[in-house]
Amino acid sequence: MNALPSEIDFSAPSEVVARLLIGAVLTVDGVGGRIVETEAYDREDPASHTFSGPTPRNAVMFGPPGHAYVYRSYGIHWCLNFVCREAGHGAGVLIRAIEPLTGIDVMRERRGLEPVKLLCSGPGRLGQALGITHRNNGMALTQPPFQVEAAGEAFPIVSGPRIGITKAMEVPWRFGLAGSKFVSKPFPKAQ
DNA sequence: AGCCGGATCGTCT
DNA sequence: GACGATCCGGCTC
Question: Which keywords does the record carry (predicted)?
């Protein structure tokens, strides 16, 4: 009844890709799980790193789609994005939370003993649990250590305002798997 | 359950 | 020199 998982078209608009990624399975060196929360960012988007044009930091986001854009957050965390749209556009999807499925022991080594629920619940935690660093910046998502398997079925999706931004707060480009206990924060009015 | 401050540093003004 | 696409611990209600 389910169609075979098809490849995700990263050249689509970031808000489309952000929805497609809900339910997809992401692993890094075999460690990962089901994506349950994403956020879309785009070039004409005041909340996006690319809003003010290309810089050394955001260069990867202006490169070809289907690559990893990794940035340092608050001087502490590494956050993982997938580049979208055509090369030169400057759009991407922030991976905010996954439901851990494989390599949970490795995640615990990296993050310490804590409930599975919290291992990848938020972009900083996810980055640490999956071992993401600046070395992953610019890497193709079709090549090791990355593996992205598209969802084989349509998952129920909720949406709402993005987290932790101060601009374009009215844009509802945060997406989540409806009812998931692994999202970083509840969605307004959802379920 | 919710608010507050500290940690920590690359990036851009 | 200021500011984060954040997390965590400690405190209060």
Answer: DNA damage, DNA repair, Hydrolase
- Closest nucleotide to A119's CA, by C1' atom? C7
Structural domains in chain A (count): 1
How do residues A13-64 score in pLDDT, each as one tens digit? 999 999 999 999 999 999 999 999 999 999 999 999 999 999 999 999 999 9
Question: Which residue reads 């980055």 in tokens?
Answer: A127
CATH code of residue A163? 3.10.300.10
Is residue A38, in this structure, part of any structural domain at all?
A: yes
Q: What tokens appear for A82 in the block?
A: 């997938």
A121 CA: nearest nucleotide by C1':
C7
Q: What pLDDT is attached to residue A152?
A: 83
Minimum-distance residue to B8 (CA–C1'): A75
The rounded Cα A168 to chain-centroid distance in angstroms is 19
Encoded tokens for A103: 């390599």
